[in-house]
Amino acid sequence: MSYYLPKDMPTPVVENDHLDLPYWEGTLKGELRVQRCKQCGTWQWGPEWLCHKCLSFDLEWVAIAPKGRIFSWTRIWHPVHPALKDHGPYIALLVELPQAGNVRMLGNLVGDPKQEIHIGAEVEAVFEQHPDGTPPYALVHWKVK
User: Fold this and answer.
1) DSSP, residue by residue, 111-134
2) Which of 68, 122, 70 is nearest to 99 (CA)?
3) With 0-12 CB in 10 A as exposed, 13-18 as middle and 19+ as buried, what is 80?
4) CA angle 97, 101, 104 (to 5 degrees)
5) 73 - beta bridge partners?
6) Which residues, including other chains, have CB under 8 Å from residue 35's CB and lie 6 or more apart?
7) What are the two backbone dihedrals, phi and then psi, of residue 27, each rounded to the nearest 5 degrees?
8) Distances (CA, A) of 71 to 87, 117, 135, 137
9) According to DSSP H, which parts of 18-136 are helical?
10) Which of 34, 67, 62 is nearest to 48 (CA)?
């Protein structure tokens, strides 16, 4: 199986407090999940125990359409991990999610690492499944629509 990132990259794990567990469970099902406050409806990313707006502890995870638009990006040439030594360049995105109150999520852009990038371009999530991981996991990357 071919993966976007080298196989020697660290395996992502659920935080010790399991706050982000619903996100990782969603990725395994091909779902993009974001937190939303049940009291005031505010969306937020990354995961927190309380609402950033009203301070309620009544939060839920909601599956949204795995689509967004490029808010910002950078082309990375310097390896930030030894496994990326021969893997550059690659493109990291900040993706704005219109269906989730325009919260922003980081991710990699798949495809030609030297492609032209446009702020505002529409992207969709690509769920890279790692069923043989310990535990199994899925990464969310992005591709231009």
Assistant:
1) S-TT----TT-EEEEEEEEETTSS
2) 68
3) exposed
4) 40
5) 93
6) 43, 44, 45, 47, 48, 59, 60, 61, 62
7) -60, -35
8) 24, 11, 32, 26
9) 21-28
10) 34
In contact, 110 and 28? CB cutoff 8 Å:
no
Q: Write out pLDDT tens, residues 11-41.
A: 888 999 999 999 999 999 999 999 999 999 9
What distance in Å separates the CA atoms of residue 104 and residue 48, rounded to the nearest whole number? 15
Q: Sign of torsion, CA 67 3 83 87?
A: negative
- Residue 102, both tokens: 């325009």
Per-domain boundaries in the chain: 21-144
3-state DSSP: the chain helix, strand, coil percent, rounded to 5? 10, 40, 50
1-14 as b/e: b if 16+ CB within 10 A = eeeebeeeeeeeee
Q: How confident is the model at residue 8 (pLDDT cuts 50, 70, 90)?
A: confident
Confidence (pTM): 0.91
Tokens describing residue 57: 């502890």
Q: Convert the pLDDT of each residue in 88-124 to its tens digit.
A: 899 999 999 999 999 999 999 999 999 999 999 999 9
